[in-house]
Description:
120 residues, mainly alpha
Amino acid sequence: MAYKEPTFSDRAALSAQAKQRALEKLKSRPAVDPAVVAARAAARAAKEAAELEKREAKRLAIEQAKQEKLAAIEAARQAEIAAAEAAAAEKNAAVERTKMSLMEAKAARDARYAARKQRK
């Protein structure tokens, strides 16, 4: 017996039989219980709600971190400003002390000059 090449009608019949078997197999499955469908839908809704809550919490955490970073930057800027003002005040105080010491030195020199004039 030799191998017989299947004809087009043989292949079409075989395909139709396969489709029919698949359809019968699908029809033989029991119907889905509405309670199971409702339970699956509730589980899916709960999972979606949990994911939404998780995303919202993550978004809030990111926003809070951003606000804290901005607050830290602002605090550092304020500290720099305060340090610069303190340095400027110290510099002004040093200039005033120098002026006072120069004035005191001048007063002392004038006093010595006046004393010398009185002795002559």
